[in-house]
Design goal:
17% strand; 24 helices; six-stranded mixed barrel; 812 residues
Length: 812
């Protein structure tokens, strides 16, 4: 211990003697360690930290795969999930749930709250107990049961002042109208389910408030959460679910044909494709740290060369090679620990920046913090970093030739003035930088191509907001039609509004409503193999308000009233898939509902495709129906305005809704441009971070090459003077120095290209419109890095040409 303290004190003295070297090394390491710590804090929260539920490792999402198409989804019917719960012996619990919204009466305008409709198995599956009261049971999750609710801690505090007496009381909670609902309990602070969904305000039994059609086997809209029994493996559970799938297919050929139920880890399902992106980013900051280590190692080599006489004297006085290596490693570790301490400050700031910049749909983003695991990671990384960049210089310095170093007139340099290790470090820096730059280039190209994709509508100057037809007068859907017509009239009269329409659901809003159908005049498809398309309910001016092009036929108008012939407008993908080479106008589509009532809709128009699921998702078959023929309690109003900032018209449009009925809630007031930006937020986040890391790597690599060449020129001043005294021209010296500097740089480019070809394939799922081996990106990055290396070599080389031969010859 005494020896370690002595080495540490001596190390601090040596670092204080060279404040410039110490400051540069600490700053370089702090940037690398700080960036790694910040990214690791995100990886820790999203990927590594266990979910806050008892037995979370046994939680799994129930998925269903179509054996015919191979498509996998997570939507189920209530009877199917009940059958799985009753028949699967490997499952301890199986809950069905779906997100919903309601309104809690609050003065003139009720507050919109978000909730979860779920079965009673949810809370036992999660192993959570309420803070006050209790959760609901299976008896309360039956038809005819009293309406009950469990409140979130946040809603309980916000609306009821944290009063425990709210348990056992009724609150006015509902959709179209408020319904007395008994509060059973309050969940503890911090409890969130589903994970990754912000502001879940309440949990309510699923069955009592739903219609028979919602609970039929043909109605597929619920998510299943299973918890395996202790000792049961996922493989056993999957095998059992496959057996049950075949059994249900035999019993219910119409609804369960080709359907196989599967399990997927809830944590894996939650993380989704963000896992690849986060690991790529973690690898990227790791590469930045490696480059920083290479630069500091080069500084250490230069410093060791300058300390050659000191090390030789210590060796001559009896210090062993091991003692010399230990002392130099102690100094390296001290540097890295100081860099790690500064890196923690950078990470503390960087985490706040990251959390503010992460996409809104990143699960568990609110849990990102510098916790004990992150601090331990930083400490381990700091020590490991010190050993990595300090070991090679220490070993090389400890091999000093004592007699040579102590000769009178010796320059005090150790072997290393022309050490191949410095060239190896340059090769490594350039190779790692090239890999990062290629990755960033691929993401940038991918993002640029994504932004070139037309969403199918014009998002500029369009404001969207949701309206609910709420009140006793609107319990019948047909009553919403005249109310909507008046609302559209009032909204169109607002100054600055060019066109106003209604849609449900909104493009890029995240909601879909798939309907299976048959085509009149064609042989019906087998049960379970019917084609399907997404349905959108609109008003006549919707296409004009959104800037969606019509391709044929007509748009909806006053002829398409509730009692008129049912009609539909289809998109181009629908026409290509189901009416190739023929005119679809006038053909009829047959839709059968859960009560086996068939409606024939005549196709009256054809419109351009709209990318409802995102710019990176191809348009599927879609059809539009007029609102008068399919009225809904909730709609999204879209208004095209003359203002460059359509949000400025939000108060006036709210006023227009209030003129119709002050009880109509208005919420989700957003521009369509914000929806478009949100749809590409993940890709922008990935590109921005990786691009930033790549630029830092490029800068560090350039500085590393410059530093090596500057040191080399300084070490060879005498040699250059001799060459010039013997007749060498400036261009000869320039060519010599550049050639020697570019050799390791070009070798690094070659090594980097090979590594990038192998590593960028990991990024394939993050790319759009470009392959992981895009030749233009590889060639462009290689050229860029070569130019940076050339500039970094040219500056010291130019300085070498200005050496005065007479001064250089007196250098010794």
């Amino acid at each position: 211990m005494g020896t370690l303290l002595q080495d540490t004190r001596y190390g601090f003295r040596m670092l204080r003697k060279r404040p410039g070297f110490t400051a540069i090394a600490i700053l370089a390491l702090a940037l690398g360690i700080g960036a790694n710590t910040a990214i690791f804090s995100v990886v820790n929260a999203v990927l590594l930290r266990p979910l806050p539920f008892a037995g979370a490792e046994r939680l799994a999402t129930v998925e269903v795969r179509s054996e015919r198409t191979g498509a996998v989804g997570a939507d189920h019917s209530y009877p199917n999930l009940v059958d799985l719960r009753e028949q699967a012996g490997t499952l301890e619990h199986l809950a069905a749930y779906s997100m919903t919204t309601a309104f809690l009466a609050a003065g003139d305008e009720p507050e919109r709250v978000r909730g979860l409709l779920t079965t009673a198995d949810l809370f036992p599956a999660l192993g959570v107990q309420p803070l006050h009261g209790r959760v609901f049971t299976r008896e309360e999750d039956q038809k005819g049961a009293t309406r009950v609710v469990v409140l979130s801690h946040g809603l309980w505090q916000r609306r009821f002042g944290g009063d425990p007496a709210i348990v056992g009381k009724e609150i006015p909670l509902g959709g179209i109208r408020s319904t007395p609902t008994l509060v059973l309990g309050v969940m503890p602070e911090g409890f969130k389910f589903p994970v990754g969904v912000a502001n879940v305000d309440y949990w309510m039994p699923l069955v009592p408030i739903l219609s028979d059609s919602d609970l039929s086997r043909a109605s597929v809209w619920l998510t299943g959460l299973a918890k395996l029994k202790e000792g049961a493996s996922e493989e056993q559970a999957r095998s059992e679910l496959q057996t049950i799938s075949r059994r249900l297919e035999e019993q219910y050929k119409d609804s369960n044909a080709d359907a196989t139920f599967m399990l997927r880890s809830y944590h894996e399902q939650l993380v989704g494709d963000m896992k690849t992106a986060l690991l790529v980013l973690l690898g990227a900051v790791g590469c930045v740290l490696l480059i920083a280590c290479a630069n500091v190692a080069n500084l250490m080599l230069a410093r060791a060369a300058a300390r050659g006489r000191e090390i030789s004297i210590r060796t001559a006085l009896g210090a062993s090679r091991a003692q010399i290596v230990r002392q130099l490693l102690t100094e390296s570790v001290l540097l890295s620990i100081l860099g790690g301490a500064l890196g923690l400050l950078i990470a503390w700031w960087g985490v706040d920046v990251l959390v503010a910049a992460v996409p809104s749909d990143l699960p568990r983003a609110a849990e990102v913090a510098l916790d004990a695991r992150v601090l331990l990671f930083t400490a381990a990384l700091s020590i490991l970093t010190g050993l990595i960049f300090g070991l090679a210089p220490a070993l090389q310095a400890s091999r000093a030739d004592v007699s040579e170093s102590l000769k009178e007139g010796g320059r005090g340099s150790v072997e290393g003035g022309r050490s191949p290790l410095r060239s190896v470090l340059v090769v490594a820096e350039v190779a790692v930088s090239l890999v990062l730059l290629v990755g960033a280039g691929l993401l940038a190209q991918s993002f640029a191509r994504l932004m070139d994709v037309s969403p199918g509508f014009d998002a500029e100057r369009v404001l969207a907001f949701d309206v609910v037809f709420r009140g006793e007068n609107y319990t019948q859907r047909a009553a919403t039609v005249p109310a909507l017509e008046e609302l559209l009239t009032q909204a169109a009269a607002v100054p600055g509004v060019e066109a106003v329409g209604v849609v449900n659901p909104l493009p890029l809003g995240g909601n879909f409503e798939a309907n299976s159908f048959q085509i009149e005049g064609r042989a019906p498809a087998e049960p379970g193999r019917e084609p399907s398309a997404d349905r959108r309910v609109i008003t006549s001016d919707y296409f004009r308000a959104m800037g969606i092009h019509t391709e044929g036929g007509r748009v909806f108008d006053s002829r398409d009233a509730a009692a008129a012939t049912p009609v539909a407008i289809i998109n181009q993908t629908f026409a290509r898939q189901h009416f190739p080479g023929e005119n679809p106008i006038g053909r009829r589509l047959l839709f059968t509902n859960t009560q086996n009532v068939t409606t024939a809709r005549e196709i009256v128009g054809l419109v351009a495709d709209v990318r409802h699921a995102g710019l990176d998702a191809e348009s599927g078959p879609e059809f539009y129906v007029p609102f008068a023929q399919a009225p809904a309690a909730r709609v999204t109003v879209v208004a095209r305005t003359t203002s460059d900032d359509p949000a400025q018209l939000a108060p006036a449009l709210r006023g227009a809704v209030r003129q119709v009925d002050k009880n109509f809630p208005v919420y989700n007031v957003r521009t369509m441009e914000s929806y478009l930006a949100e749809s590409v937020a993940r890709r922008r986040f990935n590109m921005t971070l990786l691009g930033g890391f790549a630029l830092v790597a490029l800068l560090l690599a350039g500085l590393g090459i410059y530093g090596v060449m500057s040191y080399t020129v300084a070490q060879r001043t005498h040699e250059i003077g001799v060459r010039m005294a013997l007749g060498a021209q400036a261009r000869d010296v320039l060519r010599l120095v550049i050639r020697q500097g570019m050799a390791p740089a070009l070798a690094g480019v070659g090594v980097g290209l090979v590594c990038a070809l192998a590593l960028t394939r990991v990024m394939s799922s993050l790319l759009f419109g470009v392959t992981a081996t895009d030749p233009l990106t590889f060639a462009g990055v290689a050229l860029l890095l070569s130019v940076v290396a050339l500039v970094s070599c040219y500056l010291p080389a130019r300085r070498a040409t200005k050496v005065d031969p007479m001064v250089a010859l007196r250098y010794e």
